[in-house]
Each structure stands twice: as structure tokens, then as C-alpha cells.
Design the sequence.
């Protein structure tokens, strides 16, 4: 997969495959979501070696992990990994996408998710599942809906974080769906 460049209002943004050298930047982007948000149900942010191991596992399996660069710095990331660890799920991926602070609502998530959908198809995935923490996460639900994901279910009160019970929203789309 080659580099796919963005032509929005930014000077030099681009989307490229992640490398292990991106682990520190990715961990820094993810940490506030873990510490202060409800999009992730992790409680303790993964350290750089843990994030490096996650990236390596994904890349070694041939699954896409992409980073969004703005002005030479990693500003977001997205990846697709096999939905469950059983052979029957080999063509179904769970997607994850995170943007750095203050970057939501500028079209970057849409471009990053679009690139991920394409990369997931190139990796052999046929179905994509978004597992969205917190049913009040309107930005993520809206982004996935705009990208052709459809609501397939909500698990009520299954997570406990920041002293509140949280839902998990499941959205799904086929990779080859037209109209991305």
C-alpha cells in the first residue's frame, strides 16, 4: 500500500503505514482517551513498549495500521485487526481510529477511515466492525455512519469507567460497499 495524501486545508498532511518508530506518538495520542474519556474501556494507558508490541502484532499479521501526519508529526492513527481470534473470523476486522486533541470535525477522521477501509480490503478483510465505547460518543458514531457503517447492536451498561456504566455500540460495513 502506498502513501495516500490528503488535500484538505493543511499544509502537508498525509496518511502512511505505521512503523514501530511511531509507537511513542501513537501512545501519546491514545493516553488522553484512556485517562479522561470513555471511547476506550482501558483504564491505564499502554506504555510505549506495549504500544510497539500492538503495532508489531498487527503489522506481522499483515493487517493495516496507518498514521496521519500533519506538518511532519503523527496526529492520528487507525488500524484494523482480526475481529476475534478464531479462524472463522479471518475475513472480519475490528477497526479503531483516534485523532490528536483538537483535530476532530475537520474531515481528517473521514479521510483516515477511508484509507483504512481500502487498506483493510487489500489485507483480505471483507467485513469491518466498529466497536464504539459509550453510546454517547456522537462523533465516532457519526463518522462511522457517514462512512457506510450501520448500527447492528448496542450492549447496555457493559463497561464501568469513571464511576459510570457505559454502553458499547457495534457498527458494521462490508469493505466493498460502494459510495465511500
Sequence:
Amino acid at each position: 500500500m502506498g502513501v495516500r495524501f490528503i488535500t484538505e486545508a493543511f499544509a502537508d498532511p498525509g496518511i502512511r503505514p505505521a512503523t514501530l518508530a511511531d509507537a511513542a506518538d501513537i501512545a501519546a495520542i491514545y493516553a488522553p482517551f484512556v485517562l479522561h474519556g470513555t471511547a476506550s474501556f482501558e483504564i491505564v494507558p499502554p506504555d510505549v513498549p506495549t504500544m510497539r508490541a500492538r503495532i508489531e502484532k498487527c503489522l506481522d499479521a499483515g493487517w493495516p495500521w496507518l498514521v496521519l501526519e500533519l506538518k511532519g508529526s503523527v496526529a492520528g492513527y487507525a488500524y484494523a485487526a482480526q475481529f476475534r481470534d478464531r479462524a472463522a473470523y479471518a475475513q472480519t476486522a475490528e477497526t479503531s481510529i483516534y485523532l490528536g486533541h483538537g483535530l476532530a470535525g475537520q474531515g481528517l477522521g473521514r479521510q483516515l477511515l477511508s484509507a483504512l477501509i481500502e487498506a483493510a480490503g487489500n489485507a483480505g478483510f471483507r467485513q469491518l466492525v466498529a466497536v464504539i465505547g459509550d453510546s454517547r460518543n456522537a462523533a465516532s458514531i457519526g463518522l462511522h455512519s457517514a462512512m457506510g457503517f450501520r448500527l447492528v447492536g448496542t450492549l447496555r451498561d457493559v463497561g464501568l469507567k469513571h464511576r459510570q456504566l457505559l454502553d458499547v455500540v457495534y457498527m458494521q460495513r462490508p469493505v466493498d460497499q460502494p459510495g465511500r
